[in-house]
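Design job #97: recover the sequence.
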Protein backbone atom coordinates (compact mmCIF):
# COMPACT_ATOMS: atom_id res chain seq x y z
CA UNK A 1 0.00 0.00 0.00
CA UNK A 2 2.87 2.38 0.84
CA UNK A 3 4.50 1.62 -2.49
CA UNK A 4 1.22 2.29 -4.27
CA UNK A 5 0.88 5.69 -2.60
CA UNK A 6 4.52 6.46 -3.37
CA UNK A 7 4.12 5.39 -6.98
CA UNK A 8 1.14 7.62 -7.74
CA UNK A 9 2.45 10.63 -5.81
CA UNK A 10 5.83 10.16 -7.50
CA UNK A 11 4.15 10.18 -10.91
CA UNK A 12 2.40 13.45 -10.04
CA UNK A 13 5.62 15.02 -8.74
CA UNK A 14 7.65 14.00 -11.78
CA UNK A 15 4.91 15.27 -14.09
CA UNK A 16 4.95 18.71 -12.40
CA UNK A 17 8.73 18.83 -12.45
CA UNK A 18 8.85 17.97 -16.15
CA UNK A 19 6.26 20.62 -16.89
CA UNK A 20 8.24 23.31 -15.03
CA UNK A 21 11.60 22.21 -16.44
CA UNK A 22 10.69 21.80 -20.04
CA UNK A 23 7.29 23.11 -21.00
CA UNK A 24 6.96 26.21 -18.81
CA UNK A 25 10.64 27.19 -19.18
CA UNK A 26 10.48 26.76 -22.94
CA UNK A 27 7.31 28.82 -23.15
CA UNK A 28 8.93 31.64 -21.14
CA UNK A 29 12.08 31.43 -23.25
CA UNK A 30 10.06 31.49 -26.46
CA UNK A 31 8.17 34.57 -25.31
CA UNK A 32 11.51 36.22 -24.36
CA UNK A 33 12.97 35.43 -27.79
CA UNK A 34 9.98 36.99 -29.52
CA UNK A 35 10.32 40.12 -27.40
CA UNK A 36 14.07 40.51 -28.02
CA UNK A 37 13.59 39.83 -31.74
CA UNK A 38 11.07 42.67 -31.90
CA UNK A 39 13.47 44.96 -30.04
CA UNK A 40 16.34 44.08 -32.41
CA UNK A 41 14.11 44.67 -35.45
CA UNK A 42 13.03 48.07 -34.17
CA UNK A 43 16.65 49.06 -33.53
CA UNK A 44 17.59 47.82 -37.04
CA UNK A 45 14.80 49.93 -38.55
CA UNK A 46 16.02 52.98 -36.63
CA UNK A 47 19.58 52.38 -37.79
CA UNK A 48 18.44 51.95 -41.39
CA UNK A 49 16.47 55.16 -41.28
CA UNK A 50 19.48 57.16 -40.03
CA UNK A 51 21.41 58.59 -43.03
CA UNK A 52 24.99 58.94 -41.72
CA UNK A 53 27.31 56.73 -39.69
CA UNK A 54 27.85 59.43 -37.07
CA UNK A 55 24.15 59.84 -36.53
CA UNK A 56 23.74 56.05 -36.32
CA UNK A 57 26.41 55.80 -33.65
CA UNK A 58 24.84 58.65 -31.67
CA UNK A 59 21.40 57.07 -31.94
CA UNK A 60 22.70 53.65 -30.85
CA UNK A 61 24.45 55.25 -27.86
CA UNK A 62 21.22 56.90 -26.81
CA UNK A 63 19.29 53.63 -27.14
CA UNK A 64 21.95 51.69 -25.20
CA UNK A 65 21.95 54.31 -22.43
CA UNK A 66 18.16 54.31 -22.30
CA UNK A 67 17.60 50.53 -22.38
CA UNK A 68 20.71 49.34 -20.57
CA UNK A 69 21.29 46.73 -23.29
CA UNK A 70 24.46 45.76 -25.06
CA UNK A 71 23.97 46.79 -28.69
CA UNK A 72 26.19 45.71 -31.51
CA UNK A 73 25.74 46.94 -35.11
CA UNK A 74 27.67 45.34 -37.96
CA UNK A 75 27.47 46.81 -41.45
CA UNK A 76 28.87 44.66 -44.27
CA UNK A 77 31.21 42.74 -41.96
CA UNK A 78 32.45 45.99 -40.47
CA UNK A 79 31.66 46.64 -36.81
CA UNK A 80 29.91 49.99 -36.66
CA UNK A 81 29.59 49.98 -32.86
CA UNK A 82 29.56 47.56 -29.91
CA UNK A 83 28.45 49.40 -26.79
CA UNK A 84 27.30 48.47 -23.28
CA UNK A 85 26.88 50.70 -20.28
CA UNK A 86 28.25 53.70 -22.17
CA UNK A 87 31.52 51.91 -23.03
CA UNK A 88 32.69 50.90 -26.47
CA UNK A 89 33.66 47.23 -26.47
CA UNK A 90 35.90 45.27 -28.77
CA UNK A 91 35.27 41.56 -29.37
CA UNK A 92 37.86 39.88 -31.57
CA UNK A 93 35.68 36.79 -31.88
CA UNK A 94 32.49 38.68 -32.75
CA UNK A 95 31.99 37.13 -36.18
CA UNK A 96 32.51 33.60 -34.84
CA UNK A 97 29.97 33.92 -32.09
CA UNK A 98 27.03 31.51 -32.25
CA UNK A 99 24.43 34.25 -32.66
CA UNK A 100 26.38 35.79 -35.53
CA UNK A 101 26.54 32.64 -37.63
CA UNK A 102 23.41 32.78 -39.74
CA UNK A 103 22.41 29.66 -41.58
CA UNK A 104 21.10 29.84 -45.14
CA UNK A 105 17.83 31.76 -45.25
CA UNK A 106 17.87 32.56 -41.50
CA UNK A 107 17.42 36.17 -40.42
CA UNK A 108 17.50 35.78 -36.63
CA UNK A 109 19.77 33.86 -34.22
CA UNK A 110 19.76 33.38 -30.46
CA UNK A 111 22.47 32.43 -27.97
CA UNK A 112 23.19 32.61 -24.27
CA UNK A 113 26.50 32.60 -22.39
CA UNK A 114 28.53 34.30 -19.70
CA UNK A 115 29.67 37.66 -20.91
CA UNK A 116 32.01 39.59 -18.59
CA UNK A 117 30.79 37.37 -15.75
CA UNK A 118 27.13 38.09 -16.48
CA UNK A 119 24.72 35.50 -17.87
CA UNK A 120 23.63 37.24 -21.07
CA UNK A 121 21.03 36.34 -23.70
CA UNK A 122 21.94 37.49 -27.24
CA UNK A 123 19.58 38.08 -30.15
CA UNK A 124 20.94 38.93 -33.59
CA UNK A 125 18.84 40.13 -36.55
CA UNK A 126 20.15 40.25 -40.09
CA UNK A 127 18.72 42.73 -42.59
CA UNK A 128 19.56 41.37 -46.05
CA UNK A 129 18.42 44.54 -47.82
CA UNK A 130 20.75 46.94 -46.01
CA UNK A 131 23.41 44.40 -44.99
CA UNK A 132 23.06 45.44 -41.36
CA UNK A 133 23.23 42.98 -38.48
CA UNK A 134 21.90 44.23 -35.16
CA UNK A 135 22.71 42.24 -32.02
CA UNK A 136 21.35 43.02 -28.60
CA UNK A 137 22.52 41.45 -25.37
CA UNK A 138 20.08 41.11 -22.47
CA UNK A 139 21.17 40.32 -18.93
CA UNK A 140 19.22 37.41 -17.53
CA UNK A 141 15.61 38.60 -17.06
CA UNK A 142 14.16 38.42 -13.54
CA UNK A 143 11.48 36.12 -14.93
CA UNK A 144 14.10 33.47 -15.70
CA UNK A 145 15.46 33.70 -12.18
CA UNK A 146 11.91 33.43 -10.88
CA UNK A 147 11.33 30.32 -12.96
CA UNK A 148 14.51 28.77 -11.57
CA UNK A 149 13.47 29.62 -8.03
CA UNK A 150 10.04 28.14 -8.69
CA UNK A 151 11.74 25.06 -10.05
CA UNK A 152 13.92 24.69 -6.98
CA UNK A 153 10.94 25.37 -4.71
CA UNK A 154 8.94 22.75 -6.51
CA UNK A 155 11.76 20.23 -6.21
CA UNK A 156 11.91 20.81 -2.45
CA UNK A 157 8.10 20.72 -2.26
CA UNK A 158 8.03 17.52 -4.26
CA UNK A 159 10.55 15.90 -1.98
CA UNK A 160 8.48 16.97 1.01
CA UNK A 161 5.36 15.67 -0.72
CA UNK A 162 7.04 12.33 -1.32
CA UNK A 163 8.15 12.17 2.30
CA UNK A 164 4.68 13.11 3.56
CA UNK A 165 3.14 10.64 1.13
CA UNK A 166 5.32 7.87 2.54
CA UNK A 167 4.43 8.83 6.11
CA UNK A 168 0.72 9.21 5.28
CA UNK A 169 0.68 5.95 3.35
CA UNK A 170 2.40 4.17 6.24
CA UNK A 171 -0.16 5.53 8.72
CA UNK A 172 -3.08 4.76 6.37
CA UNK A 173 -1.70 1.29 5.71
CA UNK A 174 -1.53 0.69 9.44
CA UNK A 175 -5.14 1.83 9.86
CA UNK A 176 -6.20 -0.52 7.07
CA UNK A 177 -4.01 -3.53 7.79
CA UNK A 178 -4.56 -3.56 11.55
CA UNK A 179 -8.28 -4.48 11.34
CA UNK A 180 -7.53 -6.78 8.40
CA UNK A 181 -4.94 -8.60 10.51
CA UNK A 182 -7.48 -8.90 13.31
CA UNK A 183 -10.00 -10.35 10.85
CA UNK A 184 -7.33 -12.71 9.46
CA UNK A 185 -6.35 -13.96 12.92
CA UNK A 186 -9.98 -14.53 13.88
CA UNK A 187 -10.63 -16.32 10.58
CA UNK A 188 -7.64 -18.58 11.24
CA UNK A 189 -8.97 -19.41 14.69
CA UNK A 190 -12.37 -20.23 13.21
CA UNK A 191 -10.83 -22.38 10.48
CA UNK A 192 -8.80 -24.17 13.17
CA UNK A 193 -12.05 -25.19 14.83
CA UNK A 194 -12.63 -22.44 17.39
CA UNK A 195 -16.19 -21.68 16.34
CA UNK A 196 -16.76 -19.45 19.36
CA UNK A 197 -14.20 -16.91 18.11
CA UNK A 198 -15.77 -13.51 17.45
CA UNK A 199 -14.22 -11.02 15.05
CA UNK A 200 -13.70 -7.69 16.83
CA UNK A 201 -12.38 -4.74 14.78
CA UNK A 202 -10.96 -1.68 16.55
CA UNK A 203 -11.66 0.80 13.76
CA UNK A 204 -13.98 3.73 13.26
CA UNK A 205 -14.39 2.95 9.58
CA UNK A 206 -17.93 1.76 8.99
CA UNK A 207 -16.75 -0.48 6.15
CA UNK A 208 -14.59 -2.54 8.52
CA UNK A 209 -17.37 -2.64 11.10
CA UNK A 210 -19.80 -3.87 8.45
CA UNK A 211 -17.25 -6.43 7.24
CA UNK A 212 -16.68 -7.72 10.77
CA UNK A 213 -20.43 -7.90 11.39
CA UNK A 214 -20.97 -9.77 8.11
CA UNK A 215 -18.17 -12.22 8.91
CA UNK A 216 -19.55 -12.78 12.41
CA UNK A 217 -22.98 -13.46 10.94
CA UNK A 218 -21.41 -15.85 8.46
CA UNK A 219 -19.52 -17.52 11.30
CA UNK A 220 -22.75 -17.85 13.29
CA UNK A 221 -24.46 -19.35 10.25
CA UNK A 222 -21.59 -21.79 9.75
CA UNK A 223 -21.67 -22.65 13.44
CA UNK A 224 -25.38 -23.40 13.20
CA UNK A 225 -24.90 -25.43 10.04
CA UNK A 226 -22.03 -27.37 11.58
CA UNK A 227 -24.13 -28.01 14.66
CA UNK A 228 -26.98 -29.16 12.43
CA UNK A 229 -24.63 -31.40 10.45
CA UNK A 230 -23.29 -32.88 13.67
CA UNK A 231 -26.83 -33.46 14.87
CA UNK A 232 -27.75 -35.05 11.54
CA UNK A 233 -24.63 -37.19 11.66
CA UNK A 234 -25.61 -38.38 15.11
CA UNK A 235 -29.14 -39.11 13.92
CA UNK A 236 -27.72 -40.90 10.91
CA UNK A 237 -25.53 -43.06 13.09
CA UNK A 238 -28.47 -43.82 15.35
CA UNK A 239 -30.63 -44.50 12.31
CA UNK A 240 -28.08 -46.90 10.80
CA UNK A 241 -27.74 -48.65 14.14
CA UNK A 242 -31.50 -48.94 14.51
CA UNK A 243 -31.98 -50.13 10.93
CA UNK A 244 -29.26 -52.76 11.26
CA UNK A 245 -30.85 -53.97 14.50
CA UNK A 246 -34.39 -53.95 13.12
CA UNK A 247 -33.36 -55.72 9.91
CA UNK A 248 -31.16 -58.28 11.65
CA UNK A 249 -33.93 -59.64 13.86
CA UNK A 250 -36.38 -60.71 11.12
CA UNK A 251 -33.51 -62.02 8.98
CA UNK A 252 -32.24 -64.20 11.81
CA UNK A 253 -35.80 -65.30 12.51
CA UNK A 254 -36.39 -66.27 8.89
CA UNK A 255 -33.07 -68.12 8.85
CA UNK A 256 -33.99 -70.00 11.98
CA UNK A 257 -37.40 -70.99 10.66
CA UNK A 258 -35.91 -72.15 7.35
CA UNK A 259 -33.38 -74.27 9.18
CA UNK A 260 -36.19 -75.76 11.28
CA UNK A 261 -38.21 -76.53 8.15
CA UNK A 262 -35.28 -78.54 6.82
CA UNK A 263 -35.60 -80.96 9.70
CA UNK A 264 -37.16 -84.28 8.51
CA UNK A 265 -38.69 -85.03 11.90
CA UNK A 266 -41.22 -82.17 11.80
CA UNK A 267 -44.90 -82.86 11.66
CA UNK A 268 -47.13 -81.17 9.09
CA UNK A 269 -48.54 -78.88 11.77
CA UNK A 270 -45.04 -77.83 12.86
CA UNK A 271 -44.00 -77.18 9.28
CA UNK A 272 -47.06 -74.98 8.78
CA UNK A 273 -46.26 -73.11 12.01
CA UNK A 274 -42.65 -72.41 11.03
CA UNK A 275 -43.64 -71.42 7.48
CA UNK A 276 -46.24 -68.96 8.81
CA UNK A 277 -43.68 -67.49 11.22
CA UNK A 278 -41.14 -67.13 8.43
CA UNK A 279 -43.67 -65.45 6.16
CA UNK A 280 -44.70 -63.14 8.99
CA UNK A 281 -41.10 -62.03 9.49
CA UNK A 282 -40.62 -61.58 5.74
CA UNK A 283 -43.73 -59.42 5.71
CA UNK A 284 -42.36 -57.43 8.63
CA UNK A 285 -39.06 -56.99 6.77
CA UNK A 286 -40.90 -55.90 3.64
CA UNK A 287 -42.96 -53.39 5.64
CA UNK A 288 -39.78 -52.06 7.22
CA UNK A 289 -38.11 -51.40 3.87
CA UNK A 290 -41.30 -49.90 2.46
CA UNK A 291 -41.50 -47.47 5.39
CA UNK A 292 -37.82 -46.57 5.07
CA UNK A 293 -38.24 -45.82 1.39
CA UNK A 294 -41.33 -43.76 2.19
CA UNK A 295 -39.43 -41.64 4.74
CA UNK A 296 -36.53 -41.15 2.35
CA UNK A 297 -38.86 -40.00 -0.44
CA UNK A 298 -40.53 -37.54 1.91
CA UNK A 299 -37.25 -36.19 3.26
CA UNK A 300 -35.59 -35.76 -0.12
CA UNK A 301 -38.84 -34.64 -1.80
CA UNK A 302 -38.66 -37.27 -4.46
CA UNK A 303 -42.42 -37.56 -4.15
CA UNK A 304 -43.77 -34.03 -3.72
CA UNK A 305 -47.03 -33.22 -2.00
CA UNK A 306 -49.84 -32.58 -4.50
CA UNK A 307 -52.64 -30.64 -2.73
CA UNK A 308 -56.24 -30.90 -3.94
CA UNK A 309 -59.55 -29.86 -2.43
CA UNK A 310 -61.43 -32.86 -1.00
CA UNK A 311 -64.07 -33.70 1.61
CA UNK A 312 -62.68 -35.03 4.87
CA UNK A 313 -65.89 -36.88 5.62
CA UNK A 314 -65.57 -38.92 2.40
CA UNK A 315 -61.96 -39.68 3.29
CA UNK A 316 -62.97 -40.78 6.82
CA UNK A 317 -65.51 -43.22 5.39
CA UNK A 318 -62.80 -44.68 3.16
CA UNK A 319 -60.45 -45.05 6.16
CA UNK A 320 -63.28 -46.61 8.22
CA UNK A 321 -63.85 -49.32 5.62
CA UNK A 322 -60.10 -50.05 5.55
CA UNK A 323 -59.65 -50.22 9.34
CA UNK A 324 -63.00 -51.66 10.51
CA UNK A 325 -61.85 -55.28 10.25
CA UNK A 326 -58.83 -54.73 12.48
CA UNK A 327 -60.91 -52.80 15.02
CA UNK A 328 -63.63 -55.48 15.17
CA UNK A 329 -60.98 -58.15 15.57
CA UNK A 330 -59.90 -56.46 18.82
CA UNK A 331 -63.43 -55.56 19.86
CA UNK A 332 -62.85 -51.81 19.49
CA UNK A 333 -65.48 -49.44 18.14
CA UNK A 334 -64.55 -46.96 15.40
CA UNK A 335 -66.47 -43.67 15.73
CA UNK A 336 -66.28 -41.31 12.72
CA UNK A 337 -69.46 -39.22 12.83
CA UNK A 338 -68.56 -35.85 11.29
CA UNK A 339 -70.18 -33.24 9.09
CA UNK A 340 -68.76 -32.66 5.60
CA UNK A 341 -65.84 -30.22 5.49
CA UNK A 342 -63.39 -29.54 2.69
CA UNK A 343 -59.66 -29.09 3.04
CA UNK A 344 -56.78 -28.39 0.67
CA UNK A 345 -54.15 -31.10 1.02
CA UNK A 346 -52.73 -34.25 -0.59
CA UNK A 347 -55.63 -36.71 -0.17
CA UNK A 348 -53.50 -39.85 -0.48
CA UNK A 349 -50.97 -38.63 2.05
CA UNK A 350 -53.60 -37.52 4.56
CA UNK A 351 -55.25 -40.93 4.19
CA UNK A 352 -51.87 -42.44 5.04
CA UNK A 353 -51.65 -40.20 8.13
CA UNK A 354 -55.12 -41.18 9.34
CA UNK A 355 -54.51 -44.88 8.74
CA UNK A 356 -51.24 -44.78 10.70
CA UNK A 357 -52.77 -42.85 13.61
CA UNK A 358 -55.88 -45.06 13.81
CA UNK A 359 -53.82 -48.23 13.43
CA UNK A 360 -51.59 -47.04 16.26
CA UNK A 361 -54.64 -46.23 18.43
CA UNK A 362 -56.17 -49.68 17.82
CA UNK A 363 -52.86 -51.42 18.55
CA UNK A 364 -52.49 -49.73 21.94
CA UNK A 365 -56.15 -50.06 22.97
CA UNK A 366 -57.65 -53.18 24.53
CA UNK A 367 -61.25 -51.96 24.71
CA UNK A 368 -63.45 -48.91 24.27
CA UNK A 369 -63.54 -46.81 21.11
CA UNK A 370 -61.25 -44.93 18.73
CA UNK A 371 -62.70 -41.65 17.49
CA UNK A 372 -61.83 -39.62 14.40
CA UNK A 373 -63.29 -36.14 14.63
CA UNK A 374 -62.65 -32.84 12.94
CA UNK A 375 -63.95 -29.31 13.20
CA UNK A 376 -63.26 -26.01 11.53
CA UNK A 377 -61.30 -23.38 13.44
CA UNK A 378 -60.94 -20.06 11.54
CA UNK A 379 -59.13 -20.85 8.27
CA UNK A 380 -58.01 -24.28 9.48
CA UNK A 381 -59.67 -27.63 10.12
CA UNK A 382 -58.48 -29.45 13.22
CA UNK A 383 -58.40 -33.27 12.92
CA UNK A 384 -58.17 -35.45 16.03
CA UNK A 385 -57.68 -39.16 16.63
CA UNK A 386 -58.66 -40.07 20.20
CA UNK A 387 -58.43 -43.46 21.93
CA UNK A 388 -59.17 -44.80 25.41
CA UNK A 389 -56.20 -47.12 25.50
CA UNK A 390 -53.23 -47.51 27.79
CA UNK A 391 -51.82 -44.04 27.12
CA UNK A 392 -48.20 -42.95 26.68
CA UNK A 393 -45.86 -42.24 29.61
CA UNK A 394 -44.78 -38.62 29.81
CA UNK A 395 -41.09 -39.41 29.30
CA UNK A 396 -41.93 -40.96 25.91
CA UNK A 397 -44.09 -38.14 24.53
CA UNK A 398 -41.17 -36.11 23.11
CA UNK A 399 -39.65 -39.13 21.36
CA UNK A 400 -42.59 -41.04 19.92
CA UNK A 401 -42.11 -39.38 16.50
CA UNK A 402 -38.49 -40.51 16.27
CA UNK A 403 -37.67 -43.40 14.00
CA UNK A 404 -37.88 -46.84 15.60
CA UNK A 405 -38.90 -45.42 18.96
CA UNK A 406 -41.42 -47.71 20.67
CA UNK A 407 -43.22 -47.20 23.94
CA UNK A 408 -43.53 -50.99 24.33
CA UNK A 409 -40.89 -52.62 22.07
CA UNK A 410 -41.86 -56.23 22.76
CA UNK A 411 -45.56 -55.66 22.10
CA UNK A 412 -44.80 -53.63 18.99
CA UNK A 413 -42.61 -56.32 17.46
CA UNK A 414 -45.17 -59.02 18.25
CA UNK A 415 -47.82 -57.19 16.25
CA UNK A 416 -45.36 -56.64 13.36
CA UNK A 417 -44.86 -52.90 13.74
CA UNK A 418 -41.79 -51.22 12.23
CA UNK A 419 -41.58 -48.26 14.62
CA UNK A 420 -41.74 -45.84 11.69
CA UNK A 421 -45.45 -45.08 11.46
CA UNK A 422 -45.49 -41.91 13.58
CA UNK A 423 -42.24 -40.72 11.98
CA UNK A 424 -43.93 -41.00 8.56
CA UNK A 425 -46.94 -39.07 9.92
CA UNK A 426 -44.64 -36.28 11.09
CA UNK A 427 -42.82 -36.12 7.72
CA UNK A 428 -46.05 -35.97 5.72
CA UNK A 429 -47.51 -33.17 7.84
CA UNK A 430 -44.19 -31.34 7.80
CA UNK A 431 -44.29 -31.46 3.99
CA UNK A 432 -47.75 -29.83 4.24
CA UNK A 433 -46.34 -27.12 6.51
CA UNK A 434 -48.22 -28.47 9.53
CA UNK A 435 -47.32 -30.10 12.84
CA UNK A 436 -48.52 -33.20 14.63
CA UNK A 437 -49.37 -32.80 18.33
CA UNK A 438 -50.04 -35.32 21.07
CA UNK A 439 -51.28 -35.39 24.62
CA UNK A 440 -51.75 -38.52 26.70
CA UNK A 441 -52.54 -39.78 30.17
CA UNK A 442 -51.41 -43.24 31.23
CA UNK A 443 -54.41 -45.50 31.71
CA UNK A 444 -56.89 -43.01 30.20
CA UNK A 445 -55.94 -42.73 26.54
CA UNK A 446 -54.20 -40.57 23.94
CA UNK A 447 -55.17 -37.73 21.60
CA UNK A 448 -53.29 -36.88 18.39
CA UNK A 449 -54.27 -33.79 16.44
CA UNK A 450 -53.12 -31.68 13.49
CA UNK A 451 -54.58 -29.00 11.23
CA UNK A 452 -55.13 -28.59 7.50
CA UNK A 453 -56.11 -25.52 5.45
CA UNK A 454 -59.87 -25.07 5.13
CA UNK A 455 -61.25 -24.87 1.57
CA UNK A 456 -64.73 -23.34 0.95
CA UNK A 457 -67.06 -25.46 -1.14
CA UNK A 458 -67.81 -24.56 -4.76
CA UNK A 459 -71.26 -23.19 -3.88
CA UNK A 460 -69.66 -20.75 -1.47
CA UNK A 461 -70.68 -22.61 1.69
CA UNK A 462 -68.13 -22.00 4.42
CA UNK A 463 -69.78 -23.84 7.28
CA UNK A 464 -68.04 -26.86 8.76
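Job complete. Output follows.
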Amino acid sequence: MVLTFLFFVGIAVVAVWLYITFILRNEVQEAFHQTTEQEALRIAEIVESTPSSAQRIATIRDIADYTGLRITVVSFDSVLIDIYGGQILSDGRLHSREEMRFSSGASVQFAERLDAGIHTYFTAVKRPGSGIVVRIGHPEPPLFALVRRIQMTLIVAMMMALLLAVIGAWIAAGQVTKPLKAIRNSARSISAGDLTEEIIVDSRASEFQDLAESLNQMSDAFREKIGELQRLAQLQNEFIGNVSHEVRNPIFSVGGYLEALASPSLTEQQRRFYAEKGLLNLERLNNLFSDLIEIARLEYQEDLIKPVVFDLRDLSLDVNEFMIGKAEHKGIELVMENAPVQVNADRGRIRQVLVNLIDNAIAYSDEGAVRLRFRRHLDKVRIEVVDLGRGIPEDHLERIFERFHRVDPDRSRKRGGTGLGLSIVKQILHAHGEQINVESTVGRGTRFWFELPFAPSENGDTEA
